[in-house]
Amino acid sequence: MSNTNILREILLRKRNQSKNTKLLQINTPNSIVESCYVKIGGIDQWITIRGENRNNPILLLIHGGPASTYTIFSPLLRSWEKHFVVVQWDQRGAGKTFGKNGKDGSGTITFDRLAQDGIEVTEYLTAKLGHQKVILIGSSAGSLIGGIMAKHRPDLYYAYVGTDQNAPDLQNLLYEITMNAVRKAGNTKGAQLLEKMGADQSQWSRKDFDKRNRILVKAINDVPNMITDLILPSMLSSPEHKIRDMMDIFKGMNYSLGHLFDELKNFDFKELGMRFELPVFIFHGENDIITPTELAKVYYNEIEAPHKEFVLIKNAGHLACFARAHQFLEELITRVRPLASPTLN
Question: Residue 344: what pLDDT?
Answer without folding.
Answer: 41
